[in-house]
Design goal:
Number of helices: 11
Low-confidence stretches: 206-210, 212-218
Order of helices and strands: HHHHHHHHHHH
Shape: globular
Number of domains: 1
Strand content: under 5%
Radius of gyration: 17 Å
Oligomer: single chain
Number of strands: 0
Helix content: 40-55%
Mean pLDDT: 93
Largest sheet: none
């Protein structure tokens, strides 16, 4: 199984490129709370589009109807994650296993996406990570490709969890002195997502986001 430790040498350059306020990446827009009240809102859902989702109004409005169906059940499940946690605790790295509460709540929300159009576990991760950056990993296709996982299975989460715990000191080093646009410390999970995603897409020697990984040496 691959590890974030493989990218120790190139990780700072990936973070510098992605967090550059003049870049075209989403760091200065997605990674802000905008006065979050603790209640999941339609705007929280649409904010995840900044990480390349394609949620439309007809994918989000059904979650907020006063009905009892798959869409409103998904919203309730995501809200339970917020209700049982805070932005500061618990942290993914502090959990002994992925079976330790509250992480099963995230996987319950993931399972409910099967019945909701355009929603997947990736969508859930991008909606909830912005609000719980220490707990909820961003698990898109680039992260799964790095860890050689076809889906967000229990095996994938266990591998990711083990890597985050094993390399917690490295992630702490990478995030030291880095802050979001609204002044919060960059979370280790977001740093891992940025480093892996940027590396997988552009390669470790590229500073031009238009240059493909095939054209650089890693």
């Amino acid at each position: 199984m691959r590890s974030i430790a493989e990218l120790r040498d190139c990780a700072p350059a990936h973070l510098d490129a992605y967090t550059d306020p003049n870049s075209h990446f989403a760091f200065t827009t997605y990674d802000q709370l905008y006065g979050s009240s603790g209640r999941l809102t339609p705007l929280d859902c649409f904010a995840a589009n900044l990480l390349s989702l394609r949620l439309r109004h007809d994918h989000v409005i059904p979650l907020f109807r006063r009905t009892h169906d798959a869409s409103t059940a998904l919203l309730a499940a995501m809200q339970r994650v917020l209700d049982e946690t805070t932005p500061d605790a618990p942290a993914f790295a502090d959990l002994e296993t992925i079976e330790e509460p509250p992480f099963p709540l995230i996987r319950e929300a993931n399972a409910l996406t099967e019945q909701v159009p355009q929603w997947t576990p990736v969508t859930v991760s991008k909606v909830l990570h912005r609000l719980r950056p220490l707990l909820v990993p961003v698990c898109d296709s680039l992260v799964r490709r790095f860890y050689q996982a076809a889906s967000q299975s229990a095996a994938f989460y266990r591998a990711l969890h083990a890597d985050v715990r094993t390399n917690s000191h490295l992630l702490t080093e990478l995030t030291e002195g880095r802050y979001t646009a609204d002044g919060r410390p960059l979370s280790p999970l977001r740093a891992l997502d940025i480093v892996i995603g940027h590396h997988e897409r552009y390669g470790c020697a590229s500073r031009d986001p238009r240059q493909s990984k095939d054209n650089v040496s890693c």
